Amino acid sequence: MLNVQDLDVFYGEFQAIDNVALKIEKGQTVIVVGPNGAGKSTLLRTIAGLLPPRRGTISFEGQRIDRMEAYHVVENGISLVPEGGRVFPHLSVLDNLKVGSYNKAARAKAQQWMKRIFELFPVLSNRKTQRAGSLSGGERQMLAIARSLMSQPRLIMLDEPSLGLAPLVVDMVFEFVLTMKQEGYTVLLVEQNANKALKVADYAYLIESGKLVFEGRSEDFDKNPYIKTAYLGI
Amino acid sequence: MVEQIIMALLNGILLGGVLALLAFGLNLIFGVVKIIHMAYGQFVMLGFYFIYFFYTAWHIPLLLSMAMGIVAMGLIGILVQLVIINPLLKAPRLNQLLALASLIIVVENLAQVIWGADYRGIPLTMPIIQFGEIFIRSSFLIAFIGAILTLGLLYLFLNRTYLGLGIRAVAQDLEMAKGVGINPNVIYYLTQATGGALTGLVAAFFIPIYTVHPHFGASFTLMAFVIVVFGGMGNLLGGFASAFIIGIATSVTAVLSSKEIADILALVLFIGMMMIRPQGLFGTES
Ligand SMILES: Nc1ncnc2c1ncn2[C@@H]1O[C@H](COP(=O)(O)OP(=O)(O)OP(=O)(O)O)[C@@H](O)[C@H]1O
Ligand SMILES: [Mg+2]
Predict the structure, then answer these.
(1) Chain B interface disruption, residue of A50, A88, A94, most B CBs within 10 A
(2) Nearest to B173 by CA among A60, A95, A72, A129
(3) What is this model's ipTM?
(4) From the centroid of its chain, how far is CA A129?
(5) Measured between alpha carbons, how far is A139 from A127 in angstroms, rounded to an integer?
(6) What SS3 class is residue A130?
(7) Same domain, A123 and A139
(8) B246, B19, B40: which is closest to B150 by C-alpha?
(9) Predicted TM-score of the model (pTM)
(10) How far is the CA of A40 from the centre of ligand 2 (A)?
(11) Into how many domains does chain A fold?
């Protein structure tokens, strides 16, 4: 479904992604783990069309998307939940959701979807008119996920959705990832919390300093002694 | 004297409505495109000349001339984005500011070349409304009602439509707005067109009130700027409230002393605000 090849991404002269390749099949949950500054967010932002790659190709459902503007990528069915529960702080919860359905196809069915979203996220339905900036960290993360679902994506990319949240809320976030998986979404999840992420993953990639250093199924990660000590804390 | 002050107060409120339109446009452009439109008042002058030209040279009925003036200014707004802002999008802020400031000179000289330095206007006799000892010009009242209606429509547009939501989203967080599927270019052009059309509308309201000359716009640029800073840059509600505060303060001062003192008062308010609350009366700390 998503196929990334030979990807190089630069910030000025600094290379943040170095020759990365990655593949996701329809319905899979794929995770990317790696330490701070490894280039995980950069990878997601590049796929989302927010950063142009210097080299390499990204195709989605057989179509090249690596030169597309971000809004076009969204129209084509990819949605990014940005790092840190980034929402529009001065918009109400309702408007944050509405803006998620900005693309034409999603707009037509926005009302229906909004209902579904409120069933899925009851916390948000009690806060419809509240400014998103006044939500708690966990609620904001929920809103960011809900907003991204409003665009009716086929691939949803989550950038460290558990970061900075209380353990109980972290569990909730991972439950949502499982729910999305059951609902048939294809998920690309970036996490530092490798233990929890590996439990929900069909396939995993490890990147360090912009380079792919390991890939495999969750079991392969569990068996690798280097990864065990460096990332799984066993 | 009491009647004079009441009349000045009323005129301040009525004119405040029109100033609120100008402040809204300037704020909208600042909030969305992140530039200060240095020639905003000069655009009112240009709009005035357009309407004057359509009416006197092409003999188009006045209301239609006004509508055409509004559309023309909307198109000029788009042109500003296309010709000045887009090429400088990645340039330092200062360059954008200088380019827009130089637009003042371009527009004023263009007006001078085309229409000359004379005062020009469309003579209209509009009735005076009288309540006892109080007189109000109906042209002021029409301008006020028109301005408030327009602001109401703009409010609905921003809050009830997808495009309005897109404008608010881009104003808050450009990158995330792109991320949720908004094409920022559409929003920029729309914002500039709206901002431009508003100067045309203000010009239309001014037709029965003023005569125009090439330097007519300068005081409105200043006025709009004072109001916007006073209310907090980019804060639409703040701009609305401060339009009336400044409108009333200057109009009452003009009656009590003189027009010049009133202008000085506006600047003193402006500088005072910059010193005490640089974020403006209604601005937030950030
Ligand atoms: N806008 C930018 N300009 C310059 N360098 C940047 C920019 N954004 C990120 N970088 C650099 O690129 C590298 C990768 O950053 P990125 O945010 O992708 O890492 P990450 O894996 O998401 O880290 P984290 O786990 O902390 O979120 C880092 O070294 C970072 O300093
Ligand atoms: Mg990151």
Answers:
(1) A88
(2) A95
(3) 0.92
(4) 26
(5) 10
(6) coil
(7) yes
(8) B19
(9) 0.93
(10) 5
(11) 2
A70 and A113 in a single domain? The answer is no
> What pLDDT is stored for residue A222 in this prediction?
84
For residue B283, being part of any structural domain is answered with no
Per residue in B116-151, pLDDT (tens digit) is: 999 999 998 889 998 888 888 999 999 999 999 999
Same domain, A21 and A132: no
CATH number at residue A8: 3.40.50.300
- From the list B165, B175, B183, the residue facing A99 with the nearest CB is B165
What's the order of all strands across the beta sheet hosting A2-11? A14-24, A2-11, A55-60, A63-64
The domain containing residue B161 runs over which residues?
2-116+137-276
Please report which confidence band the pLDDT of residue B285 belongs to, taking 50, 70 and 90 as the band edges.
very low
A146 Cα distance to chain centroid: 12
For CA atoms A106, A111, A112, A113, the dihedral sign is positive
Which residues, 6+ apart, have CB-to-CB distance to A4 below 8 Å?
A20, A21, A22, A23, A43, A47, A56, A57, A58
- Please check whether residues A161 and A47 belong to one and the same domain: yes
Supply the range of the domain harboring residue A8: 1-77+155-234
